[in-house]
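A further point concerns the way the authors explain their paired sequence and structure data. Each protein is reduced to its one-letter sequence and a matching series of backbone shape codes. An entry of this sort, consisting of the sequence and the corresponding backbone structure tokens, reads as follows:
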Amino acid sequence: MIARRDLHSTPPLLIILNTLLVGLLLLPAAYLVIRAADDPGDAWDYITQTRTLDVLWNSVVLALMVALGSTILGVPLAWLTVRTDLIGRRWWTVLFTLPLVLPSYVGAFALLSAVGPSGFVQDWLGVERLPDIRGFFGAWLSITLFAFPYVFLSVRAGLRGLDPQLEAASQVLGKNPLQTFLRITFPQLIPSIQAGALLTMLYALSDFGAVAFMRFNAFTRVIYIQNTQSFRPSRVAMLSLELVALAILVIIVSRWIEGNAAAYRRQNTRPPTRISLGRWQIPALLFCGMVIMLALNAPVGVIAYWLINGLQTGQELNDIFEPLQNSMRIAGITALVAGLVGLPLVFLQARFPGTISRWLNIGATLGFALPGVVVAISLVYFATRYAGSIYQTLPLLIFAYLVRFLPQLIGPLRASFLQINPHVEESALTLGKNRWQVFATITAPLIRSGWIAGVALVFLTVMKELPATLILSPTGFSTLATEIWSATGEAFYARAAAPALVLVLVSALSLIYILEPND
């Protein structure tokens, strides 16, 4: 019999490895502290001004409402595609994930072009002017429509790991599907919902494109304005540190609400019996279609309009083969690296919870709340002073992606770990298996859904990442995102349309392969 301390004591090597990793991921935050210290008096006076406090309030409200809206959309959509006989479940799953690949600035511009002042809808209705959606509503709508897949994928992975016998027993006792979901399924999905909602809140705090187009004064827009107009790095750094502090608070509150997630555990992996929607099939399809129309069809339709209009006017289109190749290569490498790097972080927190693992997890998650431009500028600072040989190289660019997007893998992967009963792993240890054998034969197969969902999220987000790519990429290295940005910046919308449509197509094809084949 193996002593209990051998089963539960934290391996020192695991702590050292994770501490070094998180230390590297916190380099951008360290830069912010250094820059804020240049003129702390001016920086403090600036962030305590009334209008700066208004920015803090705007960001908090936006993040909370985006999380709420994403949960309202993501949870029922995940349930429909996993637990019911919804027609075309597999294709709906792909479509519900695709909004993640649309750059926020393209999506926001498409919404303005469709329902904003002087938009397409206004012309079709023949009215003089529609209400202006710019401001909070426009920012909330555009971010929610492109962020709800975080909740959808996380909850979907959680549903696939739940014990279907509990739901079957509930139905045998006379409970209808809604009662079964609310009393049996929903409480077990809290870790997955928490993981997805946390990602949407951090996404809302760090997004720049949507709030810039919608002219909503959230942190990222104000930081960008200060960085380009005031030439006061201390103010930019202090605003960014305030954003980091807000992100830490969001993570802590999220973990506190989650409570004792260890109670929600996987018991077996038998496939569930699909619930027949019956007469609710048509309303369910209409609901799914409405979401896709707003989150995908509308922006893609505007992009298609740009392309057709450009071709009709004889505009030349740029070659997109090289940007496509670069995008897929850099996204694939980053996703695989994130998948390997995230395992020890999540394993430490899920299997050896405590103060150390909790703070290491917070440190690893902070990068998602930092705007891409802040991460990129901070890495330029460190690279030019301490590691000039890696400046404007692919390894530095991949590291910037990891700082920003590793939390996207941590969320779903952590939810999958929490669904595994640790007694199963402990039993294997008592039977003579070492930790590596237990992980390879027991843990890894059970966390597969969450790991794949996290890797897919990283891949898709890197495909559309813009600020870090613009600043850190090697000279001449272009991606689909940078092609879209440069073309729209010069008002060549036809040139932007081609790479944008290819970006959506490649992501759809990759998702067909990446997502679970047995849906």
User: Anything to note?
Assistant: Residues 38 and 234 are 6 Å apart (CA to CA). DSSP finds 26 helices and no strands in the chain.
